[in-house]
Automatic annotation (TrEMBL):
TM region positions: 60-78, 90-111, 123-142, 154-172, 236-256, 276-301, 308-328, 348-366
A Pfam family hit: Acyl_transf_3
InterPro entries per record: Acyl_transf_3_dom, Nod_factor_acetyltransferase
Name listed for the protein in its UniProt record: Acyltransferase family protein
Residues covered by the Acyltransferase domain: 59-362
Disordered: annotated span: 1-54
Length: 409
């Protein structure tokens, strides 16, 4: 199918036959097609400039990103109402075990060809850094004025709510060349995550605890090959995933009163969770294993054919960053305070509402409106690459040569 990336980074393989959408949660851009989601949307439709035959989007990855973003939004809608509901808390725990790892693994997989070439650095800035600055500012102002919190500061060093993923993606992607160079990338990344789990001194700057504790999933994605995804999509794996998820729900129900939810957020050291220091590395390894197992089960259920929601996979960055305003607006406005929402029918209603809302936020009209903030071109901000200029001159010269020959004939 393609030349796989070798684990030690000795040979860089091309991306799979897909063009991912913009950088961001849960919707990482393909390093070869980062300029904007609008370009990738044209490619998905089989039209547009620069679209080559055979370079179509892989429906599996778009389906996976869409389903994962729905789980993210649904889980966020559960937070204000889960209260003492042990069943809902067990579902919440299970979903939090794998929904972000799934996104991060896909992000790493589509970062395999990233290097420090000028055009890719530009796309990293416009596709990750600019949205981070815009939405970190927007969320801080939203909390200040809607929640009446005048002490809420705008700090680009302290990500608030959803923006931590953009900060993490920027750091992970910048370190990609290193992970492709070292001999044992995944064990090293796990070692770093384990050390972070016993280092409360790291603090909240850039949400480094999350950056480091989620790092192994990104590095795993870098090391993965297309056949690994095909492996987990076999019918036998799909069938085995049913009892695995059922067992996970039982374990989640058992763990609710015995385990702090903070472990699943990966944003605190063991000492900050009032646990002995040695439990940090143990939990990192245990949760990594559980997350990997449930993520494999999730991937096994993702359809590989084109579905009605496949095209929405190109807009998961939009759904991710925008749905937070609905969730936080509901919390600030007291929308979740109604007692009936804490009953089974109310929880189902919230789940359906959250899924519908994030689906709408992934659609093309919404992407067109907010593209200026999430996928700006910003050609005015960068110098033109001399190599790109030279290639343009060569193309112009090549096109003019036949004309000269025709005239001389």
């Amino acid at each position: 199918m393609m030349n796989p990336l070798r684990p030690h980074g000795q040979h860089r393989a091309p991306l799979p036959p897909t063009q991912s959408s913009a950088n961001g949660v849960p919707s990482p851009r393909s390093p070869q097609n980062q300029p904007g989601e609008h370009a990738s949307s044209r490619a998905a439709a089989g039209t547009g400039a620069g679209n080559r035959p055979g370079k179509q989007r892989d429906a599996f990855f778009d389906n996976a990103k869409y389903l994962a973003i729905v789980l993210v939004a649904v889980a966020h809608s559960w937070e204000p109402v889960k209260g003492d509901s042990r069943i809902l808390q067990s579902f919440y725990t299970v979903v939090y075990t794998f929904h972000m790892p799934a996104f991060i693994i896909i992000s790493g997989f589509f970062s395999r060809s990233f290097d420090l070439r000028a055009d890719r650095l530009k796309r990293l800035l416009t596709g990750v850094v600019v949205p981070y600055v815009v939405f970190e500012t927007a969320y801080s102002l939203f909390k200040r004025y809607v929640d009446h919190a005048p002490d809420q500061e705008i700090s680009l060093l302290d990500p608030w709510y959803l923006t931590w993923f953009l900060c993490a993606l920027f750091i992970w992607r910048l370190t990609t060349p290193i992970w492709k160079l070292v001999r044992w990338p995944l064990p090293i990344a796990l070692g770093i995550a384990m050390l972070a789990s016993v280092s409360p001194e790291i603090g909240d700057d850039l949400d480094l605890q999350r950056v480091l504790q989620f790092l192994p999933f990104f590095v795993l994605g870098l090391c993965m090959k297309p056949e690994h995804f095909r492996l987990v999509r076999r019918r036998s794996v799909r069938i085995l995933s049913v009892p695995v998820f059922a067992t996970a729900l039982v374990v989640g129900w058992w763990a609710v009163p015995r385990m702090k939810t903070g472990w699943f957020y990966h944003r605190a050291a063991a000492q900050e969770l009032a646990a002995p220091w040695w439990s940090g590395p143990v939990m990192v390894l245990a949760l990594f294993s559980c997350s990997l197992l449930l993520t494999a089960c999730f991937f096994s259920w993702v359809p590989g054919r084109k579905m009605w929601f496949t095209t929405l996979g190109a807009g998961t960055l939009y759904g991710y960053l925008l749905h937070g305003f609905l969730i936080k607006g509901g919390e600030f406005g007291g929308w979740f305070d109604h007692a009936w929402l804490e009953r089974p029918l109310g929880e189902i209603f919230l789940s359906v509402l959250a899924a519908a809302a994030v689906t709408l936020l992934c659609t093309s009209p919404v992407r067109r409106v907010f593209r200026f903030a999430m996928e700006p071109t910003m050609e005015w901000a960068f110098k033109r690459d001399s190599a790109e200029i030279a290639r343009g001159r060569d193309r112009t010269a090549g096109q003019g040569a036949p004309e000269r020959e025709k005239v001389s004939a």
